[in-house]
Amino acid sequence: MKIKENYMLRQVADTFVVVPIGAAVAEFNGMINLNGVGAFLWRQMEVDTTFENVLNAMLDEFEVDEKTASKDLEGFIEELRKSNLIDE
How many structural domains comprise the chain? Predict the structure, then answer.
């Protein structure tokens, strides 16, 4: 899985914002605000990766148990799917 092309993560003060660029502007109207964890996950998925790789990176970076991390990651990925932001 991978974040689709033409979406960029930018930091504005203490907020992380995903904005469409290029052809994606016509497909996606608006922007997405992410917290620090969401931005971390987004960066992990900017390259082709697997659920397990992202989960392991999450476990290495944050003090969270595997069950909670897995559930939160599944929710994050589902939101990306709903917005058609990932290629699988």
Answer: 1
